[in-house]
Write a structure and sequence with these properties.
The chain folds into 6 domains: 226 residues, Regulator of chromosome condensation 1/beta-lactamase-inhibitor protein II (Methylamine Dehydrogenase, Chain H), CATH 2.130.10.30; 203 residues, no CATH class; 84 residues, no CATH class; 138 residues, Hect, E3 ligase catalytic domains (Hect, E3 ligase catalytic domain fold, Alpha-Beta Complex), CATH 3.90.1750; 63 residues, Hect, E3 ligase catalytic domain (2-Layer Sandwich), CATH 3.30.2160; 104 residues, Hect, E3 ligase catalytic fold. 38% of the residues lie in helices and 17% in strands. The chain contains 30 helices and 34 strands. The strands form 11 sheets. It has a 4-stranded antiparallel beta sheet, with no helix packed on it. A 4-stranded antiparallel beta sheet has the order 7-8-9-10, with no helix packed on it. Strands 11-12-13-14 form a 4-stranded antiparallel beta sheet, with no helix packed on it. A hairpin with a 6-residue loop joins strand 27 and strand 28.
Length: 967
Amino acid sequence: MQEDKHGRKISWKLEDVCCKETIMSLSCGVAHVILLSEAGSVFCLDPSSRVPRAVGNLNQVIQIACGHHHSIALTKAGKVFTWGSNCNGQLGLGEGKPNMLSYPQHLTSLSGIPLAQITAGGDHSFALSLSGAVFGWGKNQQALYKTGSAGQLGLGDTTDRLSPAPVSCLDLKKNISVCCGAEHTAVLTKGGVVHTFGSGRYGQLGHNSLRDELRPCVVAELWGSKVTQVACGRDHTLAFVPSFKKVYSFGRGQQGQLGNGVKIDQSVPLPVQLTQDQIDDQHVELIFAGGNHSFAFCSSAPESRNELNHLSRGNVPLTLNDETIARWISECDSESWNQIKTEIKRVFSSASCLNGSFLDKSRDKHYQTSLKHSGLDLSFVRLAFQSLAKKDKVLTEVKGVVLDILLPSLNKDPIGVEDLRTYLILPELLRVLPELLGVLPENECSANLIKVFAEAVLRLSPDKLPVLEGLWSTLQDSYFRTTVKAFRCGLVFFEQMVVRNGFQSVETVLKVLQRLYDVNSKRNRRIPNATFHSNEVGSLFQTIQNLNLRLQELDTGWIFECDNDLGTYSTQRKKILEFKRLFEVSVCRLKTYPFVLDTEAKCSGLWMHAVTLFKASHLEQHQGRCSQFISVARETLLDDTFQFLRQMTCHMEDLKVQFQAENGMDYGGLSLEFFCILASELLQMEPKILEVDQESGLAWFTADDWSITDEFYFLGMLCGKALYNQCVLNLCFPLALFKKLLRLTPTLDDLKELFPTEASALQYVLDQDEDVVETLDLVFMDGGQELMENGETVPVTTGNRKKYVDMYVDMKLNKSVQNQFAEFEAGFHDGCPIHTWRIFLPEELMTLLQGEENYDWDKLRENAKCVGYSHTDDTIQHFWSVFTDFSVEQKKTFLTFLTGTDRLPRGKSLSRMQMTIFHLPSADPDECYPKAQTCNVKLGLPNYSSVDILRDKLLHAITYCDVFGDY
């Protein structure tokens, strides 16, 4: 018996329902009934017809629910459909929708959430995810003819919601069931705890009051009793505790719906008066609460319990499991394969099915889903895709469904963490694709899949993308590395994609990799930067060089026969120029994404490309004058250098060095030695502009304001010029300086490198318990400087110690040398006029300027070649014998003699350096000293008569020879 909107009684007889399908369940509203068939079809009975009619094209439906005047359906594919009245947003379709919809419409905002249950109240609705997340929408206040507030959505207010909203205060509660009354809601947890919220005017919340609750509150009277079922009527609630074999009721009881023998309301849970002798012999299987009535279904058949509970809770959407995977990859006939393809499409076209397939159920971890925990068992994900990869056509089918259906359908504004699991799952699919494992390198389909995947990531709304980045940051190294590699593989066909579709075709992937790189920089355990490097992108510079060589060959007539594929000479030249211009544009764009290049590629490719272009432009602008010559005396080198800089009118030219009274020509060697000597002079100059910490051995700016002179500017200019001229200026700066140049914020770790003792004291403050911190009697001061306003009176506590440490680090590395660094930075920019140096990481920039000390002395011998000697000659054998016996400092002195510096410029390690030992002719060899051509790394050795003479002459040369030219 039902009532229509005018209060008239309407009745149906089931035998009048001419339906050929078996009805498995039904749900009733005020004036309509929704029926669900065994085949998954939905039918409706309402006052307009006594014969059931099919509802839209719904199929594969597994759950239904009715509110007063609206209905909800959940399909096997995890989709939610709603229809009926929408006057309070109970259909969840968002703004701009009509107040009534007679046909089912897909609730897309829940399309990625793996749902366990849907339910509806009077004019509000709820959905429960497999991980216990609760989402509510619709009416959130009392009816107009009632007084009070309500809050049946549990969101802390009385504002209606037009689309599903997460009830965040119920997160991590292990919720397993939601039920709704007319204006109140109850949620049951796996531990048997009941939370209620909404209207409490009849006591239906069970809180021993008639007060409305805007947020979920525990029903205290049921605490400690494990409740396994909850049911809500219009204004009353039932709860079943199997251990006591009791059903508890509370709320409105004026029509006897509480089963307590009286017709009064009840605000605390009290047992229903069930016939005890019958209960002893039977089990309460299910409890139901209607408008103003209640039912308890009892059975003595033990096998009925599972079946009834299954029917009451409903089915859940399709998910992937081991059994399904095993069947998919087994041998099958064509008919079975068609069925498998249908199943693959259902699972992999649905984000909710995929997101619910790999839950980490060990110790209920999937119920811990939060911003810091995805709830996924990624080891299961990896094993699943490895199994699918055993059958090529299954993997191909999966890839096609993901590319064509799943990725384009992903919600750009997901409402929960569970909806973001897809972005953590799919990299494991990409990991096993044969094209990306090198089996089919000619196939670019997977690169397109990665591109579309990257587009889906970047489509995420600005407030949701950081949530995904937070989940990335919590991944174990193996899975985070897989994610990085998956997107990096989208650059495998970098050059081909650029030629076909321009740089924008790869930029989407680069943008995602940029975000992953930023996430990695903040992870507690960073994966190596090399994981982001792409050899395919790095090879672009070699391709450009090859194209230049090809052009030279064409223009000089070295190519006499035309390439049939490229056509005539003019056609070839045109195409090569087009490719070259296209790739050079890509090089310029790559400056924004330097993390995909290793240091060598940056140095030899991107950096040198920028320098070459700048020099060419500068050469044309200044009509052939592109170098500046600085003449200095070794005895007054520092004064001569500063005088030259003060008189210089143009800062944008190469620097060439001439040592006074010496004949050497600067082809690189003199500059190297100039900057090597200059580094020592700068560290010893008076008055000091740099101070070397005795403990760390690192140099930092003097902190006295009175010392702010133009020397700081010139110091920066010299560092910039050294970088621009690819020379080493080793001033023993800490990494913090290069972070500051790159506009990165120095941290406590940087202070530990520079001032270890001070930093250790700060770390001690962070590590100690509250009692210890208070006994330190610290205030917000650094020496005599306040770290904040009135810092002298602000004590350091456990609550503000992190702020204290951050402000202390900021004072030491930033504020105390703010003016000095500003001058240094300005000079650095003028000394290195191209700003492409920003492509380097702080560690890379430090090595470029200060060189490295990776001395593999054996490599120097292995790479050496002889001119005028053979490797077996006595002089060569004696030389290596002497060199091997040198101390480390003597070897470094020899390296300075040979190259001009004992620091190895980046990319010029001993493993790459080729020293040439040539015969130095002389009438009296034993009276001559060895000579070095630093620019060419050549060592001239006379043919000494003994090893002892060679040792004496070589030691004298490397120790006392400090001039260029003949001697």
